[in-house]
Amino acid sequence: MRTEEQRDPDPAPAGTPPRSLAEALRTRDDTSLSALLRIRPDLITPVPTDLTQLATRAGTRASVVRALERLDRFALQTAEALAVASDPATHDELMGLMAGDDRDPAVTAAFPHALATLREQALVWGTDDRLRLVRTARELLAPGPQHPSPTGLGPTVAEATAGMSPGRIQEIVAACGLPTTHDSVSAVASLTTLFTDRKRMPALLDTAPAESLEVLSRLVWGPPYGQVTADPARHLRWLIDRALLLPTAPGTVVLPREVALHLRAGRAHRETDPVAPALEQARTHRPQMVDTTAAGQAYTALATVEELLKDWHEGGPSVLRAGGLSVRDLKRTAVALDVAEPVAAFWVELAYAAGLLATDGEADERYAATPGYDEWLELPSGERWALLASAWLAATRTAGLIGGRDAQDRTLSALGPGLDRSAAPEVRHRVLALLAGLPEGSSPVPDSVVARLHWERPPRGPRTAAGDDLRGRLARWTLSEAELLGVTGRGALSAQGRALLGLPPAPAHDTASGSGSVGASAGRGAGAGARLPVHRHHRAAAEPAAPLPRTPAERAAAAAQAARILGPLLPEPLDHVLLQADLTAVAPGPLERPLADTLGVLADVESKGGATVYRFTPGSVRRALDAGRSASDLHAFLTAHSRTPIPQPLTYLIDDVARRHGHLRIGAASAYVRCDDDALLNEILADKRSQGLRLRRLAPTVLAAQADPAALLEGLRSMGFAPAAESAEGDVLITRAHAHRTPPRSAPEPVPDGPPVPDATLLGAAIRAIRAGDLASTSPRKGAQADLPGTGELPRTSSAETLATMQAAVMTGGTVWIGYVNAEGAASQRVIAPIRVEGGFVTAYDHTADEVRTYPLHRVTGVAELADDQQ
Fold it and tell me: Tens digit of pLDDT for each residue in 203-227?
């Protein structure tokens, strides 16, 4: 059975109040319907056939719960107040429940917008003198024995006395000093009138014992239920005898709603929040300092992701059986990146979200870079950063959850399942949009950001400590991750961050104060705790100046603009290093890729920061020689790329390692060692450290070993020798790092938070279809079909009648209503204007589809002419 909101009676005469939600929707224009469908996209998934079906869907429990969850705190409080008002309620009654008897001016100013929001989202319908909350919302928000109202109010006097005997009701009426009546209905009405009378009610309470008033004060703001014994105390008996407390079950009493509202001075809520809490400024920095600091963070982000994937160049850690990265591997990654484990988890997840990292799909499955990583390396630095930042902004995988527990009490691991949170992208966008609304260069107090989000989307259940719900934690993670990534600098939104959101650039910076370089120190802030002005209106202040990018094209354009802004702020790659006498090389900035790759083989990274320090060691030089370089190649390379002369210690190191490199040759027997210098072989045999290799002489220049070639090679190197591996043909093997790549992989798709927001094209098509379907279902018909509108039944006529009516409509240019069954057997009602009837087909303009279509006549179940005023 349809509820009152969904029932579709015969259309009401123009100018009369709507009698159902469907009628209220029918009075809306296309702009208003578009706004509804954009806010509640689940209503057009799939597109409803008409407005009656749209109203039915808008009243379903799942859709209403979703709509209520997306209300801000004051709009939700307004809906909660309407749920405890009379049904229907008047505008003044609802205003009184929100603003109280004293009419709080802040609440009074914000109330019209809150009510308009509820109307816009089809949660409230009706005129101001007959406001109705959709039935499902009332059931969710109204007080009941199993679910107390968020307002803390209990049942009305009429509801609480529903099972009470008539004699007992008359006794209560007499105890209150009211005249007795002949029936319970009028007696309950008399009590209700007394309890809502702001003049007579104080007189009744003035006669109450002090202990009785204390009991009422404990119950007034909820919960309204209390326990009593079979023989209540005198002060409790006084309240029960006058219905100020009413029994609901043995040993349980409740404070009637009317009494509580009187004690609350008419307010439905103890505290109302008509105004969004203002963001508090923590500090203010020069915009130039913010941008350069953010650019420095962006450069570090690029270097860290590159270092991570270079570390996993030949195949990264193994994939756990349940999926994800083990705790031990995450710790190793954190040590390699020189960051804390939660930060390492963030970089790993970011590389995965950007499609640069995936599993290789082998039997012994491991993580490795994807082919997309090689393409990413070839992009300009600004574009590489924009790809990472865009992936982070849209990702539903949440690195902050790593290390926590899931619903089955299993540990959540990096790159593992269970990390998707569909609310993450929306929270990230909203946090950054709030930062965009602050004065340029200002960073917020994190608690104030969380408080703002809690106002815009109140957490479920009782109010929790600041930030311990999911949205609060997501907001805090967003602030820290945005700083790591370079979207913000010193807590303030950067220029590239604004561009990433699709917002227009801030006013030009004041260059007179100078622009800092990457890594420069910040200027002195404006002082912690500075509070922004409070805007006294309902809609949140400091909104972004432009809508956030929604379509892929808009997001791509925003990312490209962010890359263009960031590019000039990043340091240019250098083609040189500074060699020092202590066997180190200093790179004063980022190096060109070929130089960085070669230097990474020839030397070990000793420290990183604004400048990178490389150290040359015998092992690192040998690594370069193993990769096929000769001593002359290394000298030429260092000469070409050093701004300082090559120090003698480095020259000696290279020559010394090269002189000994390859003097010993190791091949496969199980393994053997050969050397033209038999004295060197004697030295190896005499060394006690070689006993584990189990060497024996086969010839004056050859030793055989029972160890495999790799173990023999490593063992001799650990003894201080510099052997070289050789092939079966006797050639020296050149060892280069093997770049292990996964097959082509796409980035993980975000898990959507409900249906996507429809674009303008889809909205226009959906509204045309709904309007046409509504016309088909509600238009008056002529003749025998006149009683079918709104019943959902298809018209039924014979083939001859159908053909005759169609031909007549072609001649007169009229519009008819038909029932049609398509090839899949789905039945629908349509309003068409026939153009031509021939060969068993009718060609007509279909108002439902807003196009010309051809229908087989044998699939038309029947036809009826529309009334003349509908033509």
Answer: 999 999 999 999 999 999 978 988 9
d(Cα 824, Cα 569) in Å, to the nearest integer?
60
Write out the two tokens for 573.
């790659």
Q: Between vectors from CA 659 to CA 656 and to CA 662, what angle results, nearest 5°?
A: 130
Picking from 472, 482, 380, the residue whose alpha carbon sits closest to that of residue 435 is: 482
With residue 625 as reference, give the H or E element that holds it.
helix 618-626
Tell me 487's DSSP state.
Answer: S
Q: Encoding tokens for residue 219?
A: 């119950």
Q: Which tokens sit at 266?
A: 């008419």
Q: What value does the mean pLDDT take over residues 235-253?
A: 90
Interior/surface letters 681-701, b for 16+ CB within 10 angstroms, e for the rest: beebeeeeebeebebeeeeee
Q: How many other C-beta atoms lie within 10 A of the C-beta of residue 627?
A: 14
- The number of C-alpha atoms within 13 Å of 480 and in the hemisphere containing its C-beta is 12
Element (H, E) at 832: strand 827-838
Classified as helix, coil or strand, 280 is strand
| Distance, CA of 318 to CA of 323 (rounded, Å) | 9
Contact (Cβ atoms closer than 8 angstroms) between residue 122 and residue 64? no
Dist. CA 504–CA 854, nearest whole Å: 49
Task: Return d(Cα 139, Cα 176) in angstroms, integer.
Answer: 32
- Return the percentage of the chain with pLDDT > 90, whole number: 41
Residues forming beta bridges with residue 856, ordered by sequence position: 841
pLDDT of 11 reads: 52
* φ/ψ of residue 79, rounded to 5: -65, -40
Q: How far apart are CA 669 and CA 269, in angstroms?
A: 87
d(CA 6, CA 25): 11
Contact predicate 650/710, CB 8 Å: no
CB 377 within 8 A of CB 437: no
- Which three-class secondary structure state does DSSP give residue 667? strand
| pLDDT 10s digits, 702-746 | 888 877 787 888 888 888 787 877 766 666 655 555 567 888 888
Give the pLDDT score at 486: 95
Tell me the helix, strand and coil percentages in the chain, rounded to 5: 45, 15, 40
Would you say residue 1 has pLDDT above 70? no
Assigned token pair, 864: 């009826």
> What distance in Å separates the CA atoms of residue 817 and residue 834, rounded to the nearest whole number?
10
Q: How far apart are the first and last CA of the chain?
A: 32
Confidence at residue 482, expressed as pLDDT on a 0 to 100 scale: 96
Nearest to 638 by CA among 574, 576, 573, 589: 576
Two tokens at 309? 């994937």
pTM of the model: 0.77
SS3 annotation, 382-446: HHHHHHHHHHHHHCCECHHHCCCECCCCCECCCCCCCCECCCHHHHHHHHHHHHHHCCCCEEECH
Question: HSE-up of 745 (CA within 13 Å, CB side)?
Answer: 24
Is residue 505 within 8 Å of 245, Cβ to Cβ? no
Q: What are phi and psi of 823, to 5 degrees?
A: -65, -25
Q: Which residues contact 733 (CB under 8 A, 6 or more apart)?
A: 724, 725, 726, 727
On average, the pLDDT of the chain sits at: 84
Which residues does residue 834 pair with via DSSP β-bridges, in sequence order? 844
For residue 21 the two structure tokens come to 């939600």
At 288-344, the pLDDT tens digits run 999 999 999 999 999 899 989 888 877 789 999 888 999 999 999 999 888 999 999
